Amino acid sequence: MTANLFGNRFYGNRTPAWHKLGFVSDIDRNAQEALGIIGSYWIEKRPVTITMNGGPVEVGDYALVRSAVPDDPKELNFGYCTKNYNIVQPDSIAQLFDDNVKQPVETIGMLGKGEKIFLTWKLPLIGINGDNVQTFGFVAVGYDGKYGASLSIVTTRVVCENTWRAAIQESESNQSQDGSRGRVFSGKHNSNNVERDLGIWMEHTQEKALAKTTELESKFTAMDNIKIEDAGILANLLFQIYPDPKPLPADYPEKLRGEKQEKIDKVAEDAECNRNAIQALFSGQGTAINATGWGLFNCVTELSNYGGMVKKPVEYSILMGNRDKVMTHAFNVIDNFVENK
Question: pTM for the complete prediction?
Answer without folding.
Answer: 0.70
